[in-house]
Amino acid sequence: MPVLHTENGPFHYELAGPSSAPVLLFSNSLGTDLSMWHPQAQTLAQDFRVLRYDGRGQGQSVIAPGPYTIDTLADDVLALLKELDVAKIHFCGLSMGGMVGMSLAMRAPERLEKLILCNTAPKIGTPAIWDARITAVRAGAMAAVVEGILERWFTPDFRKASSSSIEKTREMLLRSPVEGYIACCSAVRDMDARDGIASISVPTLIISGAHDPVTTPHDGHFMAGKIAGSVYKELPAAHLSNIEAAEAFTMEVLRFLKA
Fold it and tell me: Which domains does the chain have, with CATH numbers?
């Protein structure tokens, strides 16, 4: 997979699908890389030009000194699009990636056709929670937090039945660069767009996991109440609904983008 050298640094990315099709960009959860979208990529690349990338501090992309902000991560998307000469996109982001989508929709709505916010919220957790996470990772690297993350990201039934998916996700988290992860934790910690998202006018789909303890259905309903005309869907999953309820997730995305 290639690395694109942008004005904001090098970004690892993958572009697949018909060159003339609308571009659909996927933005990742904290601590993951573009491989988290494998369950969606092949199917959606039949109808869209699918653009996946590793965010700043994650995967094989630039690990600049932190802390980061969500707006900085959104500016990285714009730099990526500039280098690829892409004017407008459909945007699908999960968790931290959804926060990036909110930033783009509030600050650069002219670059978005449609917006999909998955298992996310305009404010996630508390500063104390994030500061404790940062302290734990500084002391013990990703191994110190990985098992707790997996428990929050997937339901007990899925963890028992899908050991291969769980192991792939564990490996992805363990290879996440520590300094980049900490810097991204700061970005999530410091974002509070609970008032700002009312300005979003891009057609928006909100996907929540019925069993998500991180960004709950309450958070999804809150966003749906703030973003005029948005569509709300709830899937039988915890936090990584694109993996746990992969087929239903992909179909909801496809249905919304083709509507």
Answer: 3-258 (3.40.50.1820)
